[in-house]
Amino acid sequence: MTEDTKKTDALKAIFNARKLAVVGVSSNPLKDGYTTLETIINGGFDGKLYPVNPGGGEICGVKVYTDLDEIPDTLDAVVIIVRADIVPRIMAQAAEKGAKGAIILSGGFRESGRQDLEDEILAVAEKFNMKIMGPNIQGINYPPNKMCAMMFPVIKVQGPLCIISQSGSVTSGLSEWAEADQFGISAAINLGNKTELCESDYIDYFSEDENTGTIAVYLEDIKDGQKFLKAIESAVPKKPVAVLRSGRTKAGIRAAVSHTGALAGDYKVFESACRQYGAFPTDNLTQLYDAAIGMGGIRAPKGRRVFIVSSSGGICTLSTDEAESNGLTVPLLPEELKTELKNLDLFSPLAHLSNPMDLVETIGEHFLTAARLVDQYNAADIILLAFGDPIPDSINLIKTLNSELKASLAVSYIGGGTEEQETRLALQREGFPVFASPERALTGIAASVYRAEYLRSRDLTGERI
Length: 465
Known about the structure:
Layout: H1 3-15, E1 19-23, H2 32-42, E2 48-52, E3 58-59, E4 62-63, E5 77-80, H3 87-96, E6 101-104, H4 115-128, E7 131-133, E8 139-142, E9 147-150, E10 158-165, H5 168-180, E11 185-190, H6 199-206, E12 214-219, H7 225-235, E13 241-245, H8 250-260, H9 267-277, E14 280-282, H10 285-297, E15 306-310, H11 313-325, H12 335-343, E16 357-358, H13 364-376, E17 382-387, H14 394-404, E18 408-413, H15 417-428, E19 434-435, H16 438-457
Parallel strand pairs: 1-2, 1-5, 5-6, 6-7, 10-11, 10-12, 12-13, 13-14, 15-16, 15-17, 17-18, 18-19
Antiparallel strand pairs: 3-4, 8-9, 8-11
Helix pairs in contact: 3-4, 6-7, 10-16, 11-16, 13-14
């Protein structure tokens, strides 16, 4: 059995664990040992759960064992929330009961100047062929197994977005965005110190995960540059990958070092390497999120031409500026198409029937007709419905166009009140992103265009090509 196969088998056992021990639980609601157990329970975990604390008793309605050896069962994985110096012993005990992986939430290792303790847990892992997640992490969440093994938050909405993040707060923040949007996550992984398993291992694993449609990665350093590039090169033909790395400035590098002891390299080299191997680099968390869901939810565009249609002149102008800032084009419409649009006698005399197209009125049929005609004339590769007002029955309008158009379809919706909220949530539950502003939609479009061009340039077959 190869090392890669062993790693894959261990990760499958961890993420699909049916027998999970949690060592270091507490009856104090203010302590991490309590919140983690509570999160696992409230997340709906329906496997066998074995909390451990020397005091025994019961916490959150679940029997607590005084020691791992008291558990009358084998284990698949163990969550550890104890003092750093105790972690090696707990790992060894869990391994002897069959655990394939240790999810170590405990801090106090390399990031606190205790490299010796980090070396010790690595030695234990190697001795027992056990895989380490962390240490110094907020936890992991795998909704397909209802396993929210994190200090917080409880996230249960399952969807296509896989989050791999070196920061616990970023992990939970992106997860909460996806839950609020009803887009959902396939997994959320906090990397922490990356003593053994690192970003590359998770990218490899989730590029093959049937529940994952797109991957968002936040990093403060790269553990192994060549391994990382190999991972994204292998993953991108199967799953889109968007990446954000902090430490672009001297002050940012200092902050990364103080957070996890990370050593960040030259950012421009990193960004160039990402593009060379197919990952889409981003500048901030909002871009990371929008790029990931855009690549996952927008059908791969055949080119860079964007047709923008709205009922708002301001939205049209903002969208055009943002499109060109992202390297996209907003071409003029063919004269014969403009003539046909005018001859329909359908649109307001105040409408600007060009690109961008300001319809003035909020009538769904007008959006439908304009998009269909532009598509018939092959005048755009991507059609952006930039709603700036409530559009009646917009869900059916969007679904109709998404099924009919040869061009890719993207949607932004801002200022639509209840209609906007209902539309966004309903469509995002089905995996189709509706962005909260035209700027954010154009980030998603630009990422989708980039991925499509990358795959075509290398004669690769992407899932959405």
